[in-house]
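Hello everyone,

My group is preparing for a crystallization screen and wants a predicted model to guide construct design. The compound we'll soak is adenosine-5'-diphosphate. Before spending weeks at the bench, it would help to have a computed complex in hand. I've included the protein sequence and the ligand's SMILES below. Output in structure-token form would be ideal because that's what our pipeline reads.
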Amino acid sequence: MSEAASAGVGSGGSPTRAQVATARRVVVKVGSSSLTTPQGGLDPQRVAALVDALAAVRLAGREVVLVSSGAIAAGLAPLGLRGRPRDLATQQAAASVGQGLLVEQYMQRFARHGITVGQVLLTVEDVTVQSKYRNAYRTAAKLLELGVLPIVNENDTVATKEIRFGDNDRLAALVAHLVHADALVLLSDVPALFTAHPDTPGARRIADVADADELLGVDISRRGSAVGTGGMVTKLEAARIATSAGIPTLLTDAGSAAQALAGGDVGTAFAATGKRRPTRLLWLAHVSDAQGSLVLDAGAVRAVTERKASLLPAGITGVRGSFSAGEPVDLVDVDGRVVARGLVSYDAADLPGMIGQRTGTLGSELGAEYARVVVHRDALVVLR
Ligand SMILES: Nc1ncnc2c1ncn2[C@@H]1O[C@H](COP(=O)(O)OP(=O)(O)O)[C@@H](O)[C@H]1O
Ligand SMILES: N[C@@H](CCC(=O)OP(=O)(O)O)C(=O)O
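Reply:
Good plan to model first. Here are the tokens for the complex, ready for your pipeline.
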């Protein structure tokens, strides 16, 4: 663990907590493990407790967007299934049955507080493809304007193996960015991030994290609950996505939701480190899987990382993997270190004949389309 992170162990009351407490618009994500009984069905008491805490925040004039997992877990019992199914088709079927039950419970409990909820089911494309995320933003903004509390989940029934978040932690971070939230609160079944799995003797709470990139020494390897998916790994990834986009993030257990939203000394507070950037680039950096890599010479590494230039064929010394134009690829230096990720303009098969050559030469020899850049700077995100 870094100095910055370890300095926060056991302390609390950070400026990040104050930011969460005063956030006008807050995205709250709750995991399956916080909504279900040990047997796996939805636990009405836990749902009710969460709703009551969120309703108080909403009724105090703050906007809340709830990202709720639990559709698959809620669908298990009605289908006579024990434990989370492994195959995608059964997960999709369980989600189809469970999502309705989940929203029904939320709807009924929020109605007691006079709050109307709206269901929003998103796919990866909705928060990554520009035309679609504009649409998703418009819908969310309108719901909030109308005083509705949006309840978001991944559209599990249509999500495919290749294009799917699979866990709602990263989805929540992207939603926080999408709706221009002032804070992100991740609710799980553990009170905080600990220096090792909470069952490990001597594991201590980490109260404040100055930079989510600096948690190298923290052991997050042990899997989470039987119904949850990503464990701590995806929660830290979510914190990294949100904080790097300027959104302070707080992680705690669902039972501490009210305290967390009031700025209490609970959980782990991750300070915002970066500035807002286009949603598409967030996806590129944190959610996409690179389909191959391009090896850059030292000049191209400098051009891309320091001058924020587009990648030209002249700076490429090697092509690895099999990819098509438009897919994400890693840009690596000669030692194999990833320095950036971008959407490549050419198929892998077209590149070997182009690399190392100046674009002017390529244009005159092969035609105008070969004079284009290999990765445009607008479709490129620096990762170091
Ligand atoms: N260092 C750690 N600190 C806290 N929890 C950890 C740590 N390492 C692993 N975990 C596990 O992560 C789990 C939370 O992830 P998960 O089960 O996916 O929850 P959710 O359903 O809320 O998304 C915890 O229950 C805990 O078992
Ligand atoms: N969309 C899925 C969420 C996947 C999941 O289990 O996420 P989580 O409990 O947040 O680790 C569902 O509703 O079941």
